[in-house]
Structure prediction request, 228 residues.
Amino acid sequence: MNYDVILPAAGSGKRMGAGKNKLFLELKGKPILIHTLEVFERDNWCRGIYLAVKDSERDFIQSLLVQYNITKVRAMPTGGDERQHSVQSCMKAIGSGEIVLVHDAARPFIVEPTIHELAEAAYEKGAAIVGVRAKDTMKRVEEGIIQETVDRSTLWMIQTPQAFRFELLQQAENHAERDNFLGTDESMLVEREGESVYMVESSYENVKITTKEDLVFGEAILNQRIGG
Ligand code: CTP
Ligand code: MG
Prediction:
């Protein structure tokens, strides 16, 4: 089984407040971006990596790829103002394919067994995403007042990677563009097509490094993995 992976890396990291792209911050002495890239560099199922980058960061990222011996990056198209547009620029760079995964460059802790389970689900069913079950009691709140307690057993917190048959994601992106629809993930675009998207259970470790606290959590995950 083979797949191509799209890693949007063209964000600004505003919520991190580091004054630079958070993907260049280091965990255990290695940039977050490299931690993520190494997962796919090592995975034999991964044919090629497509990285959406900012023009101003392309040279620096290129130098990191050389320094860390990342060999599978096939293209580094320019990202857009929105994550969805960054992903779309990578889809254009791929051109055609069978299974495509979209994974936030800011999620370095994804593991190969989950990636494989996801890729197989997309191959069989067309579209699949990873996530975890909601842990806390969930309530719907309006203007500071509880409206209802939502049945938690049906609620999932959605992560990436998300995997699709190439042509399905391509069609969903084209329709979203036509309709000026902006989703927060690729699944939303495919859901609009009326397609079933299947859920694959992942791990609470697969966090997106978003704010400063996540760096502490990230170091802890890496320490534990080295120790075990
Ligand atoms: N991303 C992208 N293009 C954008 C926005 C985001 O490629 N226009 C990428 C980010 O680099 C990141 C992933 O999408 O790997 C998830 O986005 P997020 O965690 O929101 O990162 P940032 O947008 O960089 O952070 P913030 O929203 O805090 O500014
Ligand atoms: Mg963002």
Observations:
- The chain has one domain: 3-226.
- The chain is about 35% helix and 25% strand.
- The two ends are 29 Å apart (CA to CA).
- The first helix runs from residue 32 to 42.
